[in-house]
Amino acid sequence: MEVDKMDENDWRYHGEGNKSLVVSHVQLSKVLRLLKYPAEDSENPPQTAEQAFRQIQNIVDFSSNVMSGLLGDKFVHSGEVVKLPMEFVRQLSIKVQHQRPAWRRDKVMDIYSGCALCLPNLTSPAPPLRSHTPPLCVEIKPKCGFLPSAEHIGRDVKSKVCRFCMHQHYKVANGRWKRRSLYCPLDLFSGSGQRMHFAVRQLIEEPQNNFKIFKGGQCIYSGHGGCSEDSSDLNSLLYHLQPYFLYSNNRIHTHVSGKAVLGDFIQVLVNALLNGGGGVGGGGVVTDRRVEARSFCEASRFNKERSRHGSHGLPGDSVLSRILQTQMLDNLNIEGLYPLYRRVEQHLRKFPKERSRLQADGPYNEAFLERLRKCPAEDDGSLDFAVSKVHQYRVAMTAKDCSIMVALVPCGDDLQDDDDVLCGQRRLRDFLSSRPPTFSYSVSILDLDPKPLDSIPLQLGLDHKIVSCYTRTLSAAQADRDDCTTLLFRPV
Question: Cβ(314)–Cβ(189) under 8 Å?
């Protein structure tokens, strides 16, 4: 890109999260991620251009120096900070405003700093993954894949029901979503083919903001606005997917049911998540017995009897295994972590200049990663122990909130078996009986921003609200069942 020749007409709205807005180039496989801030600050930006640049550079440093070392550099694209012409940014903001979902417009795009994060567009892979057929790309926010240990929590329900399933009740009660998703992260992280298939099916049924599908770089399926008009219509999704799976199981020139197409698509996606998206072999299967007892959520709708059969455990080189191991750096839960945070906070209140030495706001360098890895197993009452555990928690929270991008590109029959490895990205067979469809694939991890140290009290408060809402819901449901029983067996 030639920065001095930037034209807003070469870019289109791509999506946004809570803190940033993303636009993609119409020809180049590039995206720009720009900061957002509350609409009431539109005339008075909350930070200077230098501070905005530092904020984005921190994201790059955290991704490349910390998360890449934990998750694997084959999965992480850190990008780079770029300075953009101010007029280009202002015109771009005007252009994309009407394309943004209404519920996101409480924040505006940063038009004052001229800073952005430039990344590859993972929804539209660059060569050698390009083919004549538009690529598919699936975005999944998997969320936390394990239950906390009972010794660190105050309410027993947290050791039985996962955070995501409890949070669904809280979001519906507060009007965030109209109905609950039946997806459970513990099913996806199980390594069991049946449970993973079930989990992906539930994401498709109720995607919310945890699941999106792109075709040729355009969003075709999502749980909310920002994609096409029919982005939550399952029939429309099947229409888009059907051409990719006509050949599977010798179905060409025969009727292909929607259920079969969806099943094939889910199988391809599950295989990509298990196979790792990179180097060949290695890793083995992760079967940590300490985790096994914490890998079943009582709220999951998956039939537990079915899970007794089949394989369990994630391949060690898979993207899900790397994410889960990083999430488990949080081995105290927010309840066990909070007293350590207070130890750090009280020290910083007395000695505010210590923030830099303790790396409370960075720099996110190799020393920060080394501090995580050398944290003692037991609390010795020191400040250094508390700081290390707090940083571990922050990194784990990033892993719990990341996104997985799986790009799938159909391979033609003219590709030979010698081409099974394409620039480090393996060719994926979908385990169906006939040779097609085969896909080249790449797996990446996005949304790896550092979580602010000062957000920990807010996390504790949210945790209490979520658990309280869930227990109230359970109590109300139990009372309704008791009332029905009383009426049914009322003596005459």
Answer: yes
Contact 242, 261 (CB under 8 A): yes
- Dist CA 117 CA 142 (whole Å): 24
The sign of the CA dihedral 366, 367, 373, 374 is positive
Residue with more model confidence, 311 or 265: 265
Beta strands in 301-451 (DSSP E): 314-315, 403-410, 421-422, 425-429, 438-446
Say yes or no to pLDDT of 251 above 60: no
82-114 confidence digits (pLDDT tens)? 999 999 999 999 999 988 988 888 999 999 999
pLDDT tens readout for residues 415-435: 444 344 333 344 554 444 444
CA distance 193 to 203: 15
Matching residue, tokens 């066990």 = 336
DSSP 66: I
Task: Annotate 16-62 with three-state secondary structure.
Answer: ECCCEEEEEECCCCEEEEEEEEEHHHCCCCCCCHHHHHHHHHHHHHH
Contacts of 370 (CB under 8 A, 6+ apart): none
> What integer pLDDT is reported at residue 421 of this predicted model?
38
Please check the confidence at residue 253 and state whether its pLDDT lies above 50: no
pLDDT at position 276 over 90: no
Closest alpha carbon to 324 in 185, 441, 429, 158: 185
pLDDT at 492 over 50: yes
Rounded Cα distance between 184 and 162, Å, is 8
Structural contact between residues 109 and 21, judged by C-beta atoms closer than 8 angstroms: yes
Measured distance CA(225)–CA(99) in Å, rounded = 9
Instruction: Give the residue among 177, 165, 75, 38 at the shortest CA–CA distance from 399.
Output: 75
Dihedral of the CA atoms 66, 329, 143, 464 (nearest 10)? -120
Distance between CA atoms of 199 and 14, rounded to whole angstroms?
A: 26
Which of 410, 427, 405, 409 minimizes the C-alpha distance to 418? 427
Measure the CA–CA gap between 170 and 184, rounded to whole angstroms. Answer: 15
